[in-house]
Design a protein that fits this description.
The protein is α+β, with helices and mostly antiparallel strands. It has a domain of about 170 residues. Helices cover about 20% and strands about 35% of the residues. The radius of gyration is 19 Å and the shape is globular.
Length: about 270
């Protein structure tokens, strides 16, 4: 059965007004919520690396999106300039949207792929979620506290060389779907981002080495078929271990449970 369009899809002006109402609400919150937002950037790197990760720039995501993929790289390079070297000092909050700002054509952003209304489509600045995904993976390996995170409600493409667990990313949409985390420790952290020929690379650094670290793992991954519709589910767990006592695990934590609609037919599934 064909899915019925939302009212905002049938009347785009309503969608536009709703988006800007939420954006204005967020801007007011940035000024009134009492948070101290991270804003200091430096080219000098902090002394200790907590975690490093890289993300392939060009991936096969469905058909006929080669130009959107190339445009995405342009978008990433613009956004990275606003984030590279950012310091997150004690009691400061990192806000992706506040730092990057609204992606516009005037700033040089191009049409890239974004996921909206249950489908992949072109949008100005599309693809910069690749940065928030990478940052979230780094943050999960640290004592930083995630205070706002969203993920897509559907899975549009089969895995193409995926190395991270499904559902471990953080989607953003300026500015009411933000990615935020707070530094509730006594340490200062730093995010560094750069590009190689094929990858976006990033690292999380700290001003003083910790005596513990984290390992993030996936559990209970399955594709399900329920009433002619495919779904995907898993759990993401984190183990905290001591570096200098033989890797002794001192804490195990469930970070998130994922359950999302799949818009393609997986190779294997379980009847639900």
């Amino acid at each position: 059965m064909k899915q019925r369009k939302l009212l905002s899809q049938r009347h785009p002006i309503l969608y536009f007004l709703a988006v800007w109402a939420r954006r204005l609400k967020r801007i007011a919150e940035w000024h009134l919520d009492g948070k101290k937002y991270a804003k200091t950037r430096t080219v000098d790197k902090l002394s200790n690396r907590i975690k490093k990760h890289q993300s392939v720039l060009l991936k096969k995501l469905g058909d006929n999106n080669a130009q959107l993929q190339l445009n995405k790289v342009t978008n990433l390079k613009i956004a990275v300039k606003k984030l590279d070297g950012i310091l997150i000092k004690p009691n400061e909050t990192f806000s992706f949207c506040k730092l990057v700002g609204l992606p516009t054509k005037k700033k040089g952003y191009l049409d890239g792929m974004e996921l909206s209304f249950g489908e992949a489509r072109a949008g100005t600045g599309g693809g910069i979620c690749q940065i928030s995904n990478l940052i979230h993976w780094l943050v999960m390996h640290s004592p930083l506290t995630v205070t706002e995170r969203y993920h897509h409600s559907f899975d549009p493409f089969p895995d193409d060389g995926r190395v991270l667990p499904f559902g471990s990313g953080a989607t953003v949409f300026y500015n009411y779907r933000d990615y935020q985390f707070t530094n509730n420790t006594a340490h200062t952290f730093q995010i560094n981002l750069w590009f190689t020929e094929k990858c976006l690379e990033g690292e999380l650094r700290i001003n003083e080495e910790l005596d513990y670290a984290y390992h993030v793992i996936e559990k209970d991954h399955q594709f399900l078929k329920i009433a002619h519709q495919f779904y995907r589910k898993n759990e993401i767990w984190r183990e905290k271990f001591l570096k200098f006592e033989g890797g002794k695990v001192v804490e195990t934590e469930l970070l998130t449970k994922n359950f999302a609609r799949v818009t393609y037919q997986p190779d294997r599934w379980v009847e639900g």
